[in-house]
Amino acid sequence: MERGGGMPGGRATGSAGPAGRDGATGLRAAVERWSAAPVVFLHRLPRWVLLAAVFGLLVLGMAGTGRAAAAGLFVLALFLGWFAYLNWPVLDASGRLLRVVATTVLAGFAVARIIGRF
Asked: Which Pfam families match (predicted)?
């Protein structure tokens, strides 16, 4: 099944790169370079594989108990935070707020699982 939009990081006409801008420096450039191969790998997977993995981690986090449940939620929070960081320059204020809130909520649920409050 082919996805639209080409490969991540492709230089299509008018494209400004994987993070939405050229010339990233410092930490952002290092993260973008490190992320290139994993993002391409994830992009090449069938869509259902990623959906099943996210759903499985969410079910583990919500239905599981203790540290295993917390680990599932923390993994989801880390992936969401990673993708949010990569997309941050091209997001508007509401997109940024949504990603910060979602990542914070997932991490909060994970902490609550660890201490036994959820």
From this structure: DUF6703
CB under 8 A, 24+ apart: contacts of 28-32: 31/85, 31/86, 32/86
pTM above 0.85, yes or no: no
What is the rounded distance in angstroms from the CA atom of residue 8 to the CA atom of residue 43? 7
How far is Cα 30 from Cα 54, in angstroms, rounded to an integer?
26
Cα–Cα dist 38/45, whole Å: 11
CB 60 within 8 A of CB 69: yes
- State the first-to-last Cα distance of the chain, in angstroms, to the nearest integer: 39
Provide the token pair at 2. 């082919």
**Residue 84 burial (CB < 10 Å; 0-12/13-18/19+)?**
middle
pLDDT in tens, the chain (118 residues): 444 444 455 444 334 444 445 567 788 889 889 999 999 999 999 999 999 999 999 999 999 888 999 999 999 999 999 999 999 999 999 999 999 999 999 999 999 998 887 7
